[in-house]
Design brief:
It is built from six helices and twelve strands. The chain has 217 residues and is an alpha/beta fold. The chain has a single domain, classed as Rossmann fold (3-Layer(aba) Sandwich). Helix 5 links the parallel strand 9 and strand 10. Helix 1 packs antiparallel against helix 2 and helix 2 packs across helix 3.
Length: 217
């Protein structure tokens, strides 16, 4: 797996990541969602540089112009519900892409740190020969993405897989390196070093789904 870690360099991306981490700014759910969306836009742009292109002649009012345009058929697949703002940011740029959605959540057994990831809702187009882009804002343990990958197998084999995430842990990245194809690309804004005993990223941001859409039961 190739990891593209944009937190290692200085860019405007750092401002948006700083704001989603800030406990005072987090109180504004609309701003939180918009910042996640903007991070999705930036990572989409960076990912677009790795896609395949073909020359096409464009007719303008004053003549013709040959331009290199993307030719890959993309399927954007997001994990509900936290992935929705990130998905929207990607869709702002890849507006011609097909879309898939999957519901995956952690089921904790009592107060123990152990949990299982349960997949309930799943809707996706055929993936055979297409470029699959998986989006999950928080790449904590990597188990959610592993389960999503397994659920998608019945829809065909994509020719390429990309993962777009906002913040990940070293543990989670190490895990998905083991279960995803070697030629997978991870595009990520920040990597944090640790996890809590319940699998949440430290320092991270907290619960992305709750911050974007309100607390759940």
């Amino acid at each position: 797996m190739t990891v593209h870690h944009f937190g290692e360099g200085n860019s405007l991306l750092n401002q948006f990541v700083a704001e989603i981490r800030d406990t005072d700014i987090q109180k504004d759910a609309m701003r939180f969602r918009r910042n996640i969306e903007r991070i999705g836009e930036i990572l989409s742009y960076e990912m677009s540089k790795s896609l395949n292109y073909q020359d096409k002649v464009i007719q303008t009012p004053f003549g013709a112009k040959e331009m290199a345009l993307p030719k890959d058929k993309l399927v954007l697949c997001s994990v509900l519900r936290a992935g929705l703002p990130l998905h929207q940011g990607m869709l702002n740029y890849f507006d011609g892409a097909e879309n898939a959605f999957i519901s995956a959540y952690r089921h904790h057994r009592g107060d123990e740190g152990a949990f299982e990831v349960i997949v309930k809702y799943f809707a996706a187009p055929a993936l055979e020969g297409k470029t699959l882009v998986l989006t999950d804002p928080m790449l904590a343990t990597g188990k959610t993405l592993e389960n999503v990958l397994n659920a998608l197998k019945e829809h065909g084999s994509p020719k390429q897989i990309h993962i777009i995430s906002v913040i990940g842990s070293q543990t989670g990245i190490s895990h998905i390196k083991k279960v995803f194809p070697e030629n997978t690309h991870l595009w990520i804004a920040a990597i944090d070093p640790e996890l809590t005993n319940k699998g949440y990223i430290i320092p991270g941001i907290g619960d992305a789904g709750d911050l974007a859409f309100g607390e759940k039961l």
